[in-house]
Amino acid sequence: MLNAEQRYEVIVVGGGVVGASAALAFAQQGLGVGWVASSVQTQTSRRMYSFNLASQAFLQELGVWRDVLAQRAAPYQSIMVWQNVPGQLCFDAKSLGQSCLGYMVDEADVITVLYQALWDHPNVQIWHDKVVSIALPGQVQLASGAHLQGELLVGADGAHSRLREWGGFVCKEQSYEQKAIVATIQHERQHQQQLYQRFLPGGPVALLAMLDPYQSSLVWTLSTKEAECMMVADEQDFNEALTEATQGVLGACSIAHHAGRSPVTARPPKHESIYWGHTLAKDDVDKPVPECFEHGKENSQVLSSSSRHAFPLICRHVHHYHHHNLVLVGDAAHTVHPLAGQGANLGLMDVQALVTAVVQARHRGWPLDDPATLNQWGRDRRADNVKMSGLFTVLNQLFAKEGQGMGVLRQLGMGLLQHLPWVKSAMVRRACGLTHLLF
Ligand SMILES: Cc1cc2nc3c(=O)[nH]c(=O)nc-3n(C[C@H](O)[C@H](O)[C@H](O)COP(=O)(O)OP(=O)(O)OC[C@H]3O[C@@H](n4cnc5c(N)ncnc54)[C@H](O)[C@@H]3O)c2cc1C
């Protein structure tokens, strides 16, 4: 059976939020999907996402948002941004007429919920396997020896995408010469569902409100050298440096060792390397899948101490999102600076737009890999992602620039923005995914 070729309308490669949501979205449109995921992150991860309202709406459309919310999603009402004095610039949900600006969610919770929806879906076959080669158009070989053939092949295999490489995509890469340290932090004062971001010359430090009012997820961007020092600093020094960097806006900060998070259970593979969603023995259900963390495993550059993890920050963007019948989505196509917490949000927008375009083409009787459809989709998404990525890069550089009155200019800029509600509102509407175009 492993050597027989399995045919699908769509093959999706990638077990992250982007790949899992793509597989589910295509299946819900009535297409036969083969979903290949070499690892499925279903236990507490080290990655927290700030999901904007567009991502929330997409997951709602997929029918899984209620379950994500029932896990540990934490809504946030406002964002405070500053450089020298806390409170310089604030964005809040009320001024937009929204009940919140977005949600902090654990990557594992979202994947667990998507995974279970995929599991239950009659149009999906799940391959717990790794793609080892492809032959365009549409052939995929798995580590188990299985061969798959798809009319449309979706590469959602992350920042270090092999499909991107095998497909011959040209990808521009530029290091930010920074690393982001992530950790779960506890603080003396309640965050009151507010996110805090202070811009410093080495990069921004952000405290992202979690469900527990005394805990936030830290994303601290530093120059590569500073980050490496902070990774080896003893914990007390780290905590003190963090409290200083955040100007004690939430009181003293320290690394949380008991994040109060129990593992989420998900359904396990029936077979060591391949499983079929509909032939599971009842006894197999609800055993936890072994924890895995693909960044830690596959990216040797990731530094980890027991509770801090550092990610090298690299801006990547492919020139074209489509080649033959292979399309790239999410981090496989682009990685952006995490200062606005938009990476996964952009990936979900790629998926939503792709599924809409392909399904519309199909209704017109066109093939799933219709080049005009895929080209148009790729051009539109690239244009949008280039704007966002460029904006984050400029903001990152602007705050890193020293001297020549830059500090004063930035202060003035933030003060001005605070008093220009329509500009502020346009910015935050874009970040929340409430509108497509900022400029
Ligand atoms: C410090 C930091 C903070 C961030 N914060 C946010 C945030 O707040 N909000 C936000 O929206 N984004 C954020 N991001 C970005 C976000 O993490 C990524 O954009 C998102 O995880 C990308 O998802 P993905 O599914 O495209 O890729 P990944 O999550 O990397 O998933 C790729 C999947 O493909 C699988 N795979 C790889 N190769 C193969 C193969 N050969 N065969 C089969 N499977 C394979 C992997 O196992 C994995 O499951 C942040 C990023 C960083 C670095």
Structural notes for this entry:
The protein is of the alpha+beta class and 439 residues long. It has a domain at 5-78 and 102-175 and 266-301 and 314-431: 3-Layer(bba) Sandwich (FAD/NAD(P)-binding domain). It has twelve helices and 21 strands. Strands 5, 6, 12, 13, 14, 15, 16, 17, 18 and 21 form a ten-stranded mixed β-sheet that branches. Strands 1, 2, 8, 9, 10, 11, 19 and 20 form an eight-stranded mixed β-sheet that branches. It has a three-stranded antiparallel β-sheet with strand order 3-7-4. A hairpin with a 6-residue loop joins β5 and β6. The longest helix is centred in the last third of the chain and has 30 residues, at 371-400. The chain is globular, with a radius of gyration of 22 Å. Bound molecules: flavin-adenine dinucleotide. Flavin-adenine dinucleotide binds at residues 13-19, 36-39, 47, 49-50, 130-131, 156-159, 162, 180, 182, 219, 294, 311, 330-331, 338, 341-345, 347.
